[in-house]
Amino acid sequence: MTRSAEQTLDWTDRVLEVEVGAVAHGGHCVARHEGRVLFVRHALPGETVRAVVTDDQGGSFCLADAISVLTPSPDRVAPPCTWARAGGCGGCDFQHVSPETQRVLKTTVLREQLSRLGGLESDVVVEELPGGPLGWRQRIRLAVDDEGRAGLRAHHSHEVVPIADCLLAPSGMLPDLLERPWQPGSHVEVAVDATGERRIGTRSRQRAAGRDWELSPGAFWQVHPHLADTLAGVVGEWAAAPAGAAAWDLYGGVGLFAAVLAEQVGFEGSVTVVESSRTAVADGERALADLPQVVFRTGRVEQVLRSLPDPAVVVADPPRKGLQKQMVTAICDRAPERVVYVACDPASLGRDVKLFAERGYELAQVRSFDAFPMTHHMESVALFTRS
Questions:
Q1: Cβ neighbours around 128 below 10 Å, total
Q2: Which stretches does DSSP call E strand in 240-358?
Q3: Which of 12, 13, 30, 186 gives a 20 to 30 Å CA spacing to 368?
Q4: The model's pTM
Q5: Which domains does the chain have, with CATH numbers?
Q6: Active site includes 344?
Q7: Do the beta carbons of residue 301 and residue 327 sit within 8 Å?
């Protein structure tokens, strides 16, 4: 197919019968039709489905949703949620997949990204967290449509899908809120805190790393109730910051990992948290007021770290785009013995694995957790050591 022919193609709204191949990053599976690739949601490897094309930019691939299954996979289950379907809520990619197979698919994606982008073969397995596949999401931001109805966004869309409940949320968290009228075009922040109380647009309390945290609305905190403690444990084990040393906690939020590092370096050491959100910094300073060795710096990481003392250990928890070349270079130039990298996107992690290797840091360990059941998302932790 020539480039000019590709640019004139538009299969949007066409219904195609396709055989589904391997899982791909992003909650899709790969299919092919007439020389083009389709990334199909709501399908499973090995199935034959009818899929409607939802987005076609005229290139070598387009996006589609499975709308009927002609040959189902043995791993297919009935989605527990009415809105987890083509044209429905965009939050869940894998409700049609058994929980065990969800983790297999995520493991496949993670290993493929580490291999293809990082040049590294790994036997990492996405691990289950306690609590099961439903009722785990303790923080939700509802969108409100032009008629004042609260709901969740459709997939890759600003459209608000009115719903009656979300099964990922704890029971009773949302139904009465979804029945109320709200200011059109606004958002509603809802959280269930460590005490089990529901907070609507107000501070919430969480507990992790052996201490209590009071969080402002919108302040970052892991939505799975077991993830913050799990990550703090892995980060602490792998960081192993020497007593009296300097450590960095980059993109540090309220300082969850800084609390762990502070215990390791002691009062003779230092932990610098770099975070761009003033709200998160204020929350963190209040939570860690008993740790004078922890200092918060507000600003963009790439600018602030130029003035920091050389670290023995770096912990970094960047946004979905990952560290990228500029930040990997900036960290490695300061020659820490270890870098503990928390990654929420396997493609970004795979790319950054290669960047660290080019700077003389090898991937010593990696673990990954199914912190977002029913979705394609996962949370990984990687340890890099200077070779």
A1: 16
A2: 246-250, 270-275, 294-298, 313-316, 338-343
A3: 30
A4: 0.94
A5: 3-76 (2.40.50.140), 109-130+225-386 (3.40.50.150), 139-215 (no CATH)
A6: yes
A7: yes
